Amino acid sequence: MTAATIAPTRLRHCARLGLAALAVSAFSAFGSPAYARGPEGIADVAEKVIDAVVNISTSQTVEAKGGGSNTMPQLPPGSPFEEFFDDFFKNRRGPGGGSKGGENNPPRKTNSLGSGFIIDTAGVAVTNNHVIADADEINVILNDGTKIKAELVGVDKKTDLAVLKFKPTKPLVAVKFGDSDKLRLGDWVVAIGNPFSLGGTVTAGIVSAKNRDISSGPYDSYIQTDAAINRGNSGGPLFNLEGEVIGVNTLIISPSGGSIGIGFAVPSKTVAGVVDQLRQFGELRRGWLGVRIQSVTDEIAESLSIKPARGALVAGVDDKGPAKPAGIEPGDVVVKFDGKDVKDPKDLSRVVADTAVGKEVDVVIIRKGQEETKKVTLGRLQDADKVQAAVKTDEPAPEKPVTQKALGLDLATLSKDLRTRYKIKESVKGVVVTNVEANSDAAEKRLSAGDVIVEVAQEAVSSGADIQKRVDQLRKDGKKSVLLLVSNADGELRFVALSVQ
Questions:
Q1: Which of 62, 244, 288, 318 has the fewest CB atoms within 10 Å, measured from its CB?
Q2: What are the tens digits of pLDDT across the range 27-72?
Q3: What is the DSSP string of 19-30?
Q4: Is it true that the peptide bond before 308 is cis, omega within 30 degrees of 0?
Q5: Are residues 117 and 54 in contact, defined by beta-carbon separation less than 8 angstroms?
Q6: d(CA 483, CA 296)
C-alpha cells in the first residue's frame, strides 16, 4: 500500500473534511463572508432531497477461522501469562453452555453500512456494488428510521453500481438524474449520505476535476470533488444546486482512510445508463467492437503521419468480432465512433460500451495517413474472458541462431527450434527477437527475447535483413522513428515505435 490509498468509501475508509479550512480558504480568496459560507441554495437542496437518501445495511454470514475469540493465543514457553490464558480458555464455555472455548467455533455474522438513494417512489434505490457485495441480507433504512428488507435487482462490478428494490410502507421521496456533462470546474455540489441510519449528513464543495481516470476500472471517468465524503457515504448521491443527482460517491484518496478533500463520484450519465439496463435486464449488455487497442504516442503518430497525436490504435482484431467483417485492420487508428470524437483508448472503450448491442455505427479510422469510414454492427461484450492455459513443454537444448543486429535488437528468422525455445505459436509469422541491448530504446519500450516483429512501417517482414532495409530507407526519408507491429508468443499484437536516429 502506498501512503495515499485509493479505497471504497466504506464505513472504515472515510472521515470528515475540515470545512473550517475550506471556509477560511474561500474567505481569503474572495474577501467576503458570503463566499466563505458557499451559495445560499445548499440548505434548500438538502431540505428538498434529504428524505430520498437512505442507509443501506447489510449482513453476511462468514465462517469463523482460527485465531478468533475462542482460540488460545500463541505464547512463548514459560511466559508469565501462559498459566492465566490456559486456565481462562480451558474453563470458558461457548454460547449456550455448549462446548468449551476453542472446541466450538460457529459461523458468525458481519455487518456493514453504506448509503444509497431512491430513484422511484415504487421502491427502487441505487448504491455501490461494494456496499452490498456478498451480502446475505440487505435492508434499506429511510431517513426517519423505517427499516425495509430489500432485494437485489442487479449489479455492475465494472462501474461499482447496484440497484435494489423494496416494498415501501409509506409514501417515498425520489430524486432524478441531472446531466453530468453540463458540470463545470468550480460548480458547487452537495454530497449527502446516511451512513449510520441516524439521518442524513450533508457536506458541500466544488467540482475539482472531470473525467478522472484513476485506473480503478475499464470505464473510469470520475467527477472529482472536495466535498467531504464521510464514513459510510459510499453509494450516496452527489447533487447539483438544482437538487439533481449528478454522481454517486464511490472513492476517496487518503493516506489514512479519512477525507483529505479528494473524492470521486461516478457521473450520472454513466449511472443512468447502467441503472436502466439493470432494471430492464438485471445485467449489463455492453457493446463490443472486437479490437485490442493502445495509445497513440507522439512517436507512433509521427510514424503514421497523424497530426496531432490522437485516437486509439488498433493493435489486434478478433477473428470473430464485428470489426473484422467491417474491414478494420491492425494499424488503423480510430478517431471517431458513432459521431463522437475519440481522443484516446479510454474514450473508445467507454463509447463502445455505452452503445446499444446490434446498432450499426460509423467508425472513422486513419489508415496510411488517410481518413476512411467503416460501418460496424456492434456485438455484445461478454464479461467472462476465456483464458486458455499455456501448454508446458520441456526446454530444448539451446541452439545459437544466425542473427542480425538492428535497432538495438538481435534478430533471427523464425525456425522450428526458435518456435520451440520461445513457445511461439505456428500462426505467428515474422522475425524473432533473440536479445535486447540494455539501455536501448527497445529495452525502454519493453521488447524482450521471444517477441516477434511482424511488420515494419506497416509492411510484413520475414528476416533481419528485411528489417534493416526498411530502417535504412526510413533514415533516408528523414523519419525519426519506425513503427513496429510486435507479437508475443501467443499471437497478441501491439505497436511499438523505436527511434531510428
A1: 62
A2: 344 444 444 556 777 899 999 999 999 999 988 776 655 544 455 5
A3: HHHHHHHHHHHH
A4: yes
A5: yes
A6: 11
